Amino acid sequence: TVFNTKQVDFDGTDDYLDCGTDSSLNPSTTITLSAWVKPDSLANYQYIINRAETYNGAYRLEIGNDVLYAAFGNNTTQINAQGDHNMIVGNWYHIVVTYNGSTIKSYVNNIEIASTSGAITMYQDTGVSTLIGSPNSLGGGLFFDGDISQVGIWNSALTSDEVSSLYNHGLPIDLTT
User: Fold this and answer.
1) What sign does the dihedral 34-38-41-43 (CA atoms) show?
2) HSE on the CB side for 73, CA within 13 Å?
3) Which of 25, 31, 104, 139 is most open to solvent, judged by the fewest CB atoms within 10 Å of its CB?
4) How far apart are CA 11 and CA 8, in angstroms?
5) CA–CA separation, 108 and 139 (whole Å)
6) pLDDT at 176
7) Averaged in consecutive runs of 10 residues, what is the pLDDT profile of the chain (177 residues)?
8) Count of alpha carbons within 13 Å of 98, Cβ hemisphere only?
9) Is the distance from CB of 132 to CB of 17 less than 8 angstroms?
10) DSSP per position, 143-156
């Protein structure tokens, strides 16, 4: 599922998109999260994609402090992967995180930057929304500061070839200005 094919500018204070609670956005064992992002700040952790009202919720994807961070949880524990991304404020980056039920892989601009093993069944809370740009619908900081485009969530772990294909498809020309 691709949510926003248009560029959305988040102010880092209180802006976010609520994608709803549809069960297709809440897989239990395999998932891919993808987005093009252009951060206006990297000083603190900022949520790109999140389906978790608690720290150990289903999944979240964050950037900040020169780290790309992905976590998958069962509401009690979580597994996570983090890797240095060396992003520069104001530049566009393609971020993809896959989880195949046993390994998390994180990519920035088609380069794998982290891989972590661990098995977990993701939390299945049908009342929690999938959010873009926010830690949760309750607020509390860590909102994304910058632009996000072409968010995708799959209920499968894309292969490295599929990640390459997404990256090579590129960012729409009207968003690069």
Assistant:
1) positive
2) 19
3) 139
4) 10
5) 27
6) 44
7) 73 90 89 95 90 83 89 89 90 96 95 94 87 77 91 94 91 53
8) 20
9) yes
10) --EEEEEEEEEESS
